[in-house]
Amino acid sequence: MRRRLKIADLRLRGVLVDSSAAIHPGAIIEPSGGKIVIGARTFIDHGVILRGLGGTIEIGDDCSVNAYSVLQGGGNLRVGNDTRIASHTVIVPSNHVFSDPDIPIRDQGLRQEGILIEGDVWIGAGARVLDGVVLGKGCIVAAGAVVTGSVAPGTIVGGVPARTISVRGKDD
């Protein structure tokens, strides 16, 4: 009953939620002038924060966003089907412009290229994915990695900044 009330409340606020999605009552989902779409059989865990911030967050089917992760939509975020996002992950599709040291950063605007996460991606606990990144189909982001550049399909990355560790299915 509680889950149904949460989904009904979200729909009233303009969030598109498939009826088979499971959203923990402790999740915070705020369109904030944007749009949020949650696909079929997707699970949003306790403490997750989804904030549209004037952009769009689209989460595909059969995904999981685990506890205390933060996903923002300011520059638009698209998460493909079958993606796993571990706890404490932060995904931010925007960045401050800071090129002119004589102007306060707050007055230089934002860069908002967006983030695309293709299907069957696994993002490990505590990872950060920054604006302008494409995570290719089937790639893996190691726990604690900071992803500042796009990742090719099937590639495993880790570190700060994230670098290629291996490629799935390749014999060493």
From TrEMBL:
The keyword Nuclease does not apply. InterPro entries: Hexapep, Trans_hexapeptide_repeat, Trimer_LpxA-like_sf. GO terms for molecular function: acyltransferase activity. The keyword Acyltransferase applies. Keywords: Acyltransferase, Transferase. Belongs to the transferase hexapeptide repeat family. This is Acyltransferase. It comes from Maritimibacter harenae.
